């Protein structure tokens, strides 16, 4: 019996989640509702959609580096907020390709090394790279993707199914 490696498991899960995330992002009414938010404390639609996309770059950071210091002015940062849905989707495709490439270039042994997220000397979290990708990367992205589906629902935008048909694909409940 062959057991899939850590790398293979992450890549398989990533492919599934990226396809679902792209379907959600494609529905974002970016050009007409970018500044909409459901509550004063919430992110705008554009901020939330960009955050979901930018988390892919954070995942690549987990794979390729040993740490990230939020106080480091030279640390990589995402580009400016996309100005259109096309720009958002282009960034999503670019960051997805970069993450897949980084994962293909790593191996299970490297994924067991620790990644430290910190602010100066204060450690925010330290986990193996594989766990960081799953917990701080994929799970975090899935959480915000879920928020994005609520935004779409509140804006009366049909929500695509993620792990099965959505209410929009089945009719109403």
TrEMBL record:
Superkingdom classification of source: Bacteria
Pfam families: DinB_2
InterPro entries: DinB-like, DinB/YfiT-like
Chain ranges of the DinB-like domain: 14-148
Protein name: DinB-like domain-containing protein
Protein species of origin: Hymenobacter ginkgonis
């Amino acid at each position: 019996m062959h057991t899939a490696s850590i790398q293979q498991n992450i890549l398989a899960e990533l492919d599934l989640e990226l396809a679902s995330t792209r379907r959600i992002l494609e529905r974002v009414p970016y050009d007409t509702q970018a500044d909409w938010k459901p509550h004063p404390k919430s992110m705008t639609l554009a901020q939330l959609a960009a955050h979901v996309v930018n988390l892919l770059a954070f995942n690549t950071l987990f794979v390729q580096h040993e740490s990230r210091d939020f106080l480091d002015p030279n640390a990589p940062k995402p580009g400016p907020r996309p100005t259109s849905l096309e720009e958002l989707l282009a960034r999503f495709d670019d960051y997805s390709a970069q993450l897949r490439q980084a994962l293909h270039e790593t191996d299970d042994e490297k994924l067991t090394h620790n990644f430290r997220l910190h602010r100066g000397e204060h450690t925010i979290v330290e986990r193996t790279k594989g766990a960081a990708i799953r917990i701080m990367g994929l799970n975090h992205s899935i959480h915000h993707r879920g928020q994005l589906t609520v935004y779409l629902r509140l804006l009366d935008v049909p929500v695509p199914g993620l792990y099965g048909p959505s209410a929009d694909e089945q009719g109403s409940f």
